[in-house]
């Protein structure tokens, strides 16, 4: 181990005019210095190799990150497209709900019109009416008509999350309202159907149509001057003039209880209807029915004439309620085509 004690002399000559610089280093220090230099070189080489390897990995990671970013961008764009479609569908459903609400109001209106046509009271339940009134706050077709056939325009403004939430809530409420209306309308329409059926049956046996094609009334019901005696007498019916041979129609469904000729009424027909109602047709030129015949409203039962106590071709028409003659005019409120 004698080499540890050895010393090495190093000379540094800066230039020809400068003095020589000498310094001595022991063998131990020299070895330590060499070791440090070698260690530094090894560290630098290791760092270089690591950097070179990491550079390749960083490039791969960057490529993977770029691919993942593109993939996620496509997913986000797809999600956005789906959201746009869903928002459009919600808007369509909202329009459909409004349209259905309008249709429900139309159905209720038609029900009221049907009741009115057959003479049924058109009052409706408060909760149904209230619901329909609320749904009818939207402008009706008579007030304003929205059509996709015309031109539209305006700036396209993206819908906000809050606005979409309100639209979803409104659409849900609209469909809930429609469901309630349907549940309320079902029994009401059944009731209306039964009421209309009963009313139609009543109308069938109620003398509501004109018994002649002519509408020329020549003598009214009540007190009048008799055309033969010229004295005040009670006229029990209505005289409707026409041409001999004109058809005479049954004013309601019923049964013929008399078809005969008399000195005062000439050829005449008496028909019994329901609820104590009878109609009498006099001065016919010809009888076209017989006792016991079942006649329907609008059936021809004879022809207009001037038989019996008559001054000219006409029909003497009477309406009798429970044995008492009443004015026929209130019953002449329909034609044969609308009975």
UniProtKB/TrEMBL annotation:
A Pfam family cross-referenced in the UniProt record is: Peptidase_M23
The GO terms this record gives for MF are:
hydrolase activity
- PANTHER family per the record? MUREIN HYDROLASE ACTIVATOR ENVC, PEPTIDASE-RELATED
Question: Is Membrane among this UniProt entry's keywords?
Answer: yes
Provide the alphabetized UniProt keywords.
Answer: Coiled coil, Hydrolase, Membrane, Transmembrane, Transmembrane helix
Please list the residue ranges annotated as the M23ase beta-sheet core domain.
234-328
Q: Could you list the residue ranges that cross the membrane?
A: 21-51
Keyword check for Coiled coil: yes
The UniProt entry's coiled-coil ranges are: 76-110
Originating organism: Cohnella silvisoli
Give EC number(s), comma-separated: 3.4.24.-
Protein name as annotated: M23 family metallopeptidase
Q: Which InterPro entries match?
A: Cell_wall_metabolism_enzyme (IPR050570), Dup_hybrid_motif (IPR011055), M23ase_b-sheet_dom (IPR016047)
Annotated signal sequence is none
